[in-house]
Amino acid sequence: MRSTRTPAVPRHGRRTHTFLAATGLVAALALTATACGGSSEDTAGDKPGATTSQAARDKVEIPAGLADKLKEHGIDVDDWAAGGWKDWDKATWLSEAKDFVNPVIEGLWKPERMQSAKEADKTVSTQDAAADQDVSDPEPVPVEATAEKTPYHRNAAPVGKIFFDSPEGPMVCSGTVVTDVNHPGKSNLVWTAGHCVHAGGSGGWYRNIVFVPAYNDLGKSEAQLADAPASEIAPYGNWWADWASTSNGWIEGGSETGGAGAAYDYAVLHVKPESGSKSLEETTGALDVDFSAPSASEVSTMGAWGYPAAPPYNGLKMFKCLDRPGRFSLSAGLPTMYRIGCTMTGGSSGGGWFRVVDGETRLVSNTSIGPTDNTWLAGPQLGQDAETLYETMSKTYGGQ
Q: Which SUPFAM superfamilies match (predicted)?
């Protein structure tokens, strides 16, 4: 899977003016996050959509339409419904499947299963990272990730964790609620990385994908979470992806280290709640996506948010990094990516990158890859291909 690991090594600093610009970015994100559905209290018990997980069940109901898709891909519907969704045959693992299959298994993602999920790691070697220095700017100075203020529902409600099952077991990424251009005010769209939904050229779609906005709202430790109510662990409940789309560039070129697909490593989920009728945007708020793909030199500060899960982090708390972006390219034949200094590790993959435009915070990229020493992060530029993917999701699934 693809998650990114970010390293922690010193670079040439721009800390002073970065901090000044970052202050505005943090404030703008907080205001956006609390504009819809935020609470004035410092606990999550009164959050809309808070639910208590029911006991996990292996047996699931398969809708007729989904049953047809399963049959098309040679999957025995009865076996799948009886618990086959847990089994992976790597030789036939939906690598040719063009349809996303993700039936709701209510109660599957209980708190303890969430905590057992591992980061979807996507790192690049030193050799790969230096592949095209003629295009890439000098490696940035590492920026130490800082913890987001709690409660998250008041400071960054649209940011959350993505949980999913892979052949290696439960995995985690990060994601962000984004607006839906065709369904204003009622978006159910989540932006993340392509490697958080699909394995790329070596495999197929992941399963049981769930988005949990403002996960672990109060930033509690593992010991404290043992007795925490569901309203603190998942303050807005669990939102199941009923459709996912990623780029052809990722599906065809993505690899264990990002590969040629890294420059196209983005995805959009359409989600629905396990219970409740409000849209995700009405519940958490949402952020606009900037598809103008500005050059790195045009942007003074970008901020990356996410839930890093690989050491020294444990995936339980939300962190952020703010830095002036530079250019990064794995090959002259691939689109240039953004790169910032950041020490976030695997698990932060898919987390949104933001910049302020005319006083408003907009998503401009997402975490894709990072080096093994966790000193920086790189994310794709979101241009015409990304916008087409987004608009197709909005038109085809946004109203469902």
A: Trypsin-like serine proteases
Handedness of CA 167, 169, 173, 178 (dihedral sign): positive
Q: Cα dihedral sign for 114, 117, 119, 120?
A: negative
Terminal Cα-to-Cα distance of the chain (whole angstroms): 28
**364 and 290 Cβ atoms separated by less than 8 Å:** yes
Q: E strands along the chain, which residues?
A: 118-119, 123-124, 146-147, 159-166, 169-178, 189-192, 207-213, 239-246, 267-273, 288-289, 302-306, 319-323, 326-328, 337-341, 352-357, 360-366, 370-371, 376-380
Q: Which residues does 223 contact at the CB level (< 8 Å), separation at least 6?
A: none
> Are 397 and 243 in contact, with CB atoms under 8 Å apart?
yes
Percentage of residues in the chain with pLDDT exceeding 90? 54
Q: Are residues 159 and 175 in the same domain?
A: yes
Alpha carbon dihedral 333, 335, 338, 341, in 10-degree steps, equals -20
pLDDT digits (tens, 9 = 90+) for 56-77: 344 555 656 666 766 766 667 6
Q: Give, as one character, the DSSP assignment of residue 262.
A: G
Average pLDDT over residues 214-221: 97
Beta-carbon contacts of residue 252 (< 8 Å; ≥ 6 apart): 200, 201, 261
Q: For 218, what's the count of Cα atoms within 13 Å in the CB-facing half-sphere?
A: 17
Same domain, 127 and 48: yes
- Could you give the number of structural domains in the chain? 2
Contact 178, 361 (CB under 8 A): no
The two tokens of residue 75 are: 């999957």
| Residues in contact with 116: Cβ distance below 8 Å, sequence separation at least 6, in sequence order | 169, 170
Same domain assignment for residues 149 and 28: yes
Tens digit of each residue's pLDDT (9 = 90 or more) over 358-372 = 889 999 999 999 998
Q: Are residues 212 and 280 in the same domain?
A: yes
Q: Residue 50: is its pLDDT beyond 70?
A: no
As a whole number, mean pLDDT of residues 193-211 equals 90
Same domain, 82 and 140: no
pTM value? 0.82
How much of the chain, in percent, has pLDDT values that exceed 70? 73
DSSP for 132-176 reads: TTTTSPPPPPP---EEPPSSHHHH-TTEEEEEEEETTEEEEEEEE
Question: Is residue 344 very low, low, confident or very high in pLDDT (cuts 50, 70, 90)?
Answer: very high
